[in-house]
């Protein structure tokens, strides 16, 4: 089996592994913000509302749209929808900013960068998004279109590209080698927020994860080992581009380290580097649009992005079949990215959904099939390290990957990005119908595999709970 199958197996939780003593080094608590002390910064405009209804936006994620350029307000909104601070809390006496995108352990390993061109408000260049003051920090001034096209192996439609990276040390501080999974899932969540925002303003946002890693990393001044790019968002399906690589000689501003003592996880570095690509010799394709487009009323995406949180206060009350169907269809049927192949499998443990017998269901080709009938809420909760709220959810969506169809670490990267993106769709759709969702990265991998009757090469990668709130 592949390197990343081995990575996934090695980082599985077992009854014993979660009980081994592991002390968190609070003196090395990672800074959730990447700080560039000496850069020119440009304040973005405050997030301003727009009208697209969430469920409608999600159903149309994969449809065609007119590719358009965005203006400065929309660029500001996009940055905020992906990585803005949407809630301030108090953490050990210090202010703590929760983001628009959820993250395992609220450790926020991701960073957000932009290539921009032709905005009158800011110079062309490559920027880092700073959530602390909602600003863009100028890393490279000038037009790097050709360099980015060559690195991403595609022509760039429109006037911007958003790039999502990860600094794995932040997540590894708590989760050690298992953190790579969470970095990928978190980045997928962030990409989904960006794509949904773009779609809500009529732009065909697509995510690409296939590109020349070293070339893309070096365009942002990243070393590719401690911090690396995982995906990029573009306004429209990009045509392939085979231009010569453009060497960047400019020097980048320095940033402060996010941890005082370096954190190094060889399993993570190995799994990641193993998936790197150094040429454009791959086949990039995007999924066709979903054909179901129901007329339905739900909260505007602008409102949902601001109020989304991980909800655990499920009541266990019944959910209507219509809400269940809208959540499942709008979230799981299609995501516009080049990472959806090979496909994930879905197992949905259902309890208390009107007109639907309790049980475990599979979803394939848009159809729901009863896999096993009965109330399995207690089993699923105990498989999620006995997290109690899981037993009160109306649906727990388990994403699984058959590694036989995903032989390379690039496939693995894509599969976890996809699970994260679909997970975020579940958060957004649930929230828009006044229900709640919560991602679950903590589960007993092999016990869950056995419980679902999966073959040896198929393992769970992520779970998202969705339930009725008060
Ligand atoms: C990949 C991933 C895994 C997560 N795993 C769990 C989990 O096992 N249990 C849990 O209660 N919350 C889990 N969460 C939710 C995070 O704790 C939550 O996103 C974070 O605290 C930030 O809060 P917010 O989502 O309300 O903004 C997970 C979130 C993500 C994205």
Question: Could you please describe the fold and organization of this structure?
Answer:
It is a single chain. The protein has two domains: 24-274, NADH Oxidase; 307-468, NADH Oxidase (3-Layer(aba) Sandwich), CATH 3.40.109. The chain is globular and about 60 Å long. The strands form three sheets. It has a seven-stranded antiparallel β-sheet with strand order 1-6-5-4-7-9-8, with helices on both faces. Strands 12-11-10-13-15-14 form a six-stranded antiparallel β-sheet, sandwiched between helices. Strands 2-3 form a two-stranded antiparallel sheet. Helices cover 29% and strands 21% of the residues. The chain has helices spanning 3-10, 54-59, 72-83, 145-152, 168-175, 179-200, 213-219, 266-274, 301-307, 321-332, 377-383, 409-432, 445-452; strands spanning 41-43, 85-91, 94-99, 110-116, 125-130, 135-141, 160-167, 205-208, 227-235, 345-350, 359-364, 367-373, 395-402, 435-440, 458-468. The protein is α+β, with helices and mostly antiparallel strands and 470 residues long. The mean pLDDT is 95. Helix 6 packs across helix 12 (409-432). Bound molecules: flavin mononucleotide. Flavin mononucleotide (FMN) is lined by residues 98, 102-106, 182, 185-186, 189, 309-310, 312, 387, 438-442.
């Amino acid at each position: 089996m592949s390197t990343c199958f081995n990575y996934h197996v090695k980082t599985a939780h077992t009854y014993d592994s979660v009980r081994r003593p592991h002390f968190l080094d609070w003196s090395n608590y990672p800074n959730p913000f990447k700080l560039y002390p000496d850069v020119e910064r440009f304040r973005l405009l405050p997030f301003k509302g727009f009208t697209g209804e969430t469920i409608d936006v999600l159903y149309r994620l994969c449809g065609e749209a007119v590719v358009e350029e965005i203006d400065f307000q929309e660029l500001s909104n996009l940055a905020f929808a992906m990585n803005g601070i949407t809630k301030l809390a108090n953490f050990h006496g210090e202010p703590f900013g929760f983001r628009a995108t959820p993250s395992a352990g609220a450790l926020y390993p991701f960073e957000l960068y932009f290539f921009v061109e032709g905005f009158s408000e800011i110079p062309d260049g490559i920027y880092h998004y700073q959530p602390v003051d909602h600003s863009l920090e100028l890393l490279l001034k000038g037009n790097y279109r050709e360099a980015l096209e060559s690195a991403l192996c595609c022509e760039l439609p429109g006037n911007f590209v958003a790039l999502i990276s990860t600094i794995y040390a932040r997540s590894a501080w708590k989760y050690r080698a298992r953190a790579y999974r969470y970095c990928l899932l978190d980045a997928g969540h962030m990409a989904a927020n960006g794509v949904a925002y773009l779609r809500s303003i009529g732009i065909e946002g697509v995510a690409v994860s296939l590109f020349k890693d070293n070339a893309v990393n070096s365009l942002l001044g990243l070393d590719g080992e401690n911090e690396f790019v995982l995906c990029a968002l573009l306004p429209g399906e990009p045509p392939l581009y085979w231009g010569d690589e453009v060497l960047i000689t400019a020097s980048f501003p320095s940033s402060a380290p996010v941890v005082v003592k370096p954190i190094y996880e060889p399993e993570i570095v190995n799994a990641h580097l193993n998936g790197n690509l150094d040429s454009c010799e791959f086949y990039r394709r995007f999924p066709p649009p979903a054909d179901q487009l129901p007329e339905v009323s739900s909260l505007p995406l602008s409102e949902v992005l601001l109020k989304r949180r991980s909800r655990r206060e499920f009541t266990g009350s019944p959910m209507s079949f219509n809400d269940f169907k809208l959540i499942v269809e709008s979230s799981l049927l299609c995501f516009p990215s080049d990472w959806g192949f090979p496909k994930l499998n879905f197992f949905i443990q259902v309890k208390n959904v009107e007109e639907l017998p309790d049980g475990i269901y599979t979803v394939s080709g848009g159809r729901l099939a009863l896999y096993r009938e009965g109330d399995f809420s207690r089993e699923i909760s105990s498989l999620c390290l006995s997290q109690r709220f899981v037993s009160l959810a109306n649906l727990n969506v388990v994403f699984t990957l058959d590694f036989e169809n995903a032989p390379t670490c690039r496939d693995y990267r894509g599969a976890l990005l996809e699970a994260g993106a679909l997970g975020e769709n579940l958060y957004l759709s649930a929230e828009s119908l006044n229900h709640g969702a919560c991602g679950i990265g903590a589960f007993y991998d092999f016990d869950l595999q056995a419980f679902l009757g999966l073959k040896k090469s198929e393992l769970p990668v992520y779970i998202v709970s969705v339930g009725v709130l008060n």
